[in-house]
Design a protein that fits this description.
Length: 164
Amino acid sequence: MNDLETRLELIKQDAIHQHSSNDQNIMSNSLQKATEAIFAYTFGMDTADWDVAVNKFAESIDIDYSAVGMMQAQITKLELKAFLQELLEKPDLRVHTAISQVLENPRKPSEFIAYYSVRHYRGQMGQAAKFAVFGWYSFMLQSDLIVSLKINVIALEGDPSVLT
């Protein structure tokens, strides 16, 4: 067996061991709550249901949208709702958010990470102007509610004026 085959066999054995462990097959309660919270936020934005979007947030939230040129502040749940509504409730604007996975931050166990791609479309289907943001949300929960949310951006694509 060459070096590569040996490494592949070790990886395979490790994967078999991990999948046979009950602890590996059960999502932690905190990760499940974090997943539910971030999905409620993004689903609420996609459907323009602002109550759903902020439902899983605490009454006071540390928000950081500075990576996309917007606010970084401590705000209330009602202020977040008004901000999202003002930003996204525009004629002919459609939003689609895809969360690829949610995980616990290995460097900071109290923080969660959710990789996303958000696409904004404005105009008629097939002819809409497009603006996309790619990156990850980092957020923290307290009593199953989001108390801080930061948008981290890897790439922007398209026309940002779609949001104005």
